[in-house]
Amino acid sequence: MGNNTETSTYDVVVIGGGPVGENAADYAIRGSDRTAVIIEHELVGGECSYWACMPSKGLLGPGAALAAAHALPGARERQSAPLPEPSAVLERRDTITGARDDTSQVDWARGAGIEVIRGHGRIVGEREVSVGDRRIHAREAVVVATGSTASIPPVAGLREALPWTSRDATNLVDIPQRIVVLGGGVVACEAATWLLDLGVREVTMVVRGHRLLPKNEPFVGEMVAEALTERGADIRFGTQFDSVHRPEVADTGYGHLHGGPAQVTLSGSGEVLEVDEILVAAGRAPATTDLGLGSIGAEESGPLRTDDHMIVPGHPWLYAVGDANGRVALTHMGKYQARVAGDVIAARAEGRNLDSPRYSAFADHSAVPQVVFTRPEVAVVGLTEQQARDSGIDVTVADMDLAVAGTYLLDPGYSGHAKLVIDRTRDVVVGATFVGAGTAELVHSATVAVVGEVTLDRLWHAVPSYPTVSEIWLRLLESLR
């Protein structure tokens, strides 16, 4: 560092200003005189606010609302069109993301006593971070909350074609007539859903495996695939891109077509798809490659592994939360980890012990909830049946179609399915999966049951309100009597 280097000291230095970093900083200093700073090279509010959860659900909402109305006689007759109005959907999306203006997020941080520094943070030594010519010292902790970036597979011509990633799909401005989606996970399935809602004529999904959403129970992918196919998606299982050729390429910015038509050759068959755009939804990698981790003897790339206090072993001052640690790539779980990390930092700063469960992120291991906002919705928590068996659990299951009075009242033709995975030895639920409209609001009750290790005998007394979709809990429990 040169002689003109400006040095600042804070109790807590957070690299990454998404919701995960914000939570870590807030919990570490709230109600104290400790100081914190967030270093962010893009937008405060992070991926979730501008490029992921918020805009994606915003894009999916109008189509879901129309589908719900279409299911009910009386509402259906008042519908003037089967699909949402694209310009209004995109305008609402821009309202949700604040047109990628993070002023309000910065104002929140500063109102919470957290300073914000614009720039790329890099670790340069123990408790030391650089941002340009500034050097920042952390008295208590450095927290890495840098998130992840979209992965582009090493396919000939793919990177050169400047394909869309999730950031483009959620911030789309130009609506392509023909698009190929590489991948069969959450981003691919949700994007295919809203692209069909927006009137894309040809949506082709190229999936290396043989089912969608493969980390879930098998019926999940089957039901989502069936629904997407019925709406016009062409799903190609068991194949991948062999090569991509795009003669005219243009870096036109998020959500604009990145050039002229592209030719995508599929492996095996050699079939060539001509499309207006390519969406790569083939996974994400921790954003740790330019973080200076080598300066402390850590790997320069890949996940920054932690213990359940979110501390990087061997570096008691260093924490990693969210996608950067490779544990669970979900915003709500990253925020959970950040709350744990913030509480641990505060407890250690005040000389308190870490015996309480609140200082340990144990939910990461067996109680992770997730909702996929496809149609039908997918809501899951904990272990699948196969995962439970692989863990050596003595498993029994409750498995049935989701058909109760509450579902009929939502849609006379309602289609859904539910499954509980039970540890027979302990008589507790270790996993739950619900597929169907309105199931997103079921998953938290299942999460409470899994985390609380509530026995089935006790769950019998959690009486579901009638007539709601949650009555499926009663039917599942009855099947186990």
UniProtKB/TrEMBL annotation:
Keywords, alphabetical? FAD, Flavoprotein, NAD
| Occurrences of domain FAD/NAD(P)-binding (ranges) | 10-337
Keyword S-adenosyl-L-methionine on this protein? no
Q: Does the keyword Methyltransferase apply?
A: no
Q: Which cofactor does it need?
A: FAD
Q: Which InterPro entries match?
A: Class-I_Pyr_Nuc-Dis_Oxidored (IPR050151), FAD/NAD-bd_sf (IPR036188), FAD/NAD-binding_dom (IPR023753), FAD/NAD-linked_Rdtase_dimer_sf (IPR016156), Pyr_nuc-diS_OxRdtase (IPR001100), Pyr_nucl-diS_OxRdtase_dimer (IPR004099)
Q: Pinpoint the Pyridine nucleotide-disulphide oxidoreductase dimerisation domain residues.
A: 368-473
What family does the Swiss-Prot or TrEMBL record give for this protein?
A: Belongs to the class-I pyridine nucleotide-disulfide oxidoreductase family.
By what name is this protein known? NAD(P)/FAD-dependent oxidoreductase
Q: Which organism is it from?
A: Gordonia tangerina
